[in-house]
Design goal:
The chain is an all-alpha fold. It is built from 4 helices and no strands. The longest helix is centred in the C-terminal third of the chain and has 47 residues, at 100-146.
Length: 147
């Protein structure tokens, strides 16, 4: 059986790549480099955040977290997903206004939050989930993810 948590880990790698690009754009804006390319880059990553990353977070909340129940500290991860959505809206407003300073600030907040969030899921939550769920629970997670 393929470990369904490996799907989440692969998606984390893709998100980390996007975060590196978002950080580059934000730091370029902070340095006062020409805003156009950096705003375009931030806009592209915002799109990834509101599609692929959002779908990933929703899958965790729908399929994984209920299986773990009270056995794992999932509430903090749900709270961070909510904070991330708030920051995404903040970034969207800053992008719409073309405000380089606000874009940079929101982008760097997203980078910091999501990097730490991903690290905690990869290093704490997923190993805990593998242990708690066992083969039968992982099979059920795979079923829920494919539904």
């Amino acid at each position: 059986m393929i470990d369904p948590l490996s799907r989440f880990e692969a998606e984390h790698e893709e998100a980390l790549d996007a975060l590196a690009r978002l950080e580059t754009a934000a730091l370029g804006l902070r340095r006062g480099e020409p805003a156009g390319p950096h705003l375009a880059g931030a806009h592209a990553i915002h799109s990834i955040l509101t599609t692929a990353v959002k779908a990933h977070n929703e899958a965790e909340e729908r399929a994984l977290f209920p299986l773990l129940g009270g056995e794992a500290p999932t509430a903090v991860f749900v709270e961070e997903h909510t904070t991330l959505r708030d920051l995404e809206r903040r970034l969207e407003r800053a992008l719409a206004a073309g405000d380089a300073g606000r874009v940079a600030t929101a982008a760097l907040l997203i980078v910091d939050l999501l990097r730490a969030h991903i690290a905690r899921e990869n290093e704490v939550l997923f190993p805990m989930a593998r242990e708690l769920l066992g083969a039968a629970g992982l099979a059920e997670l795979a079923r829920r993810l494919s539904a």
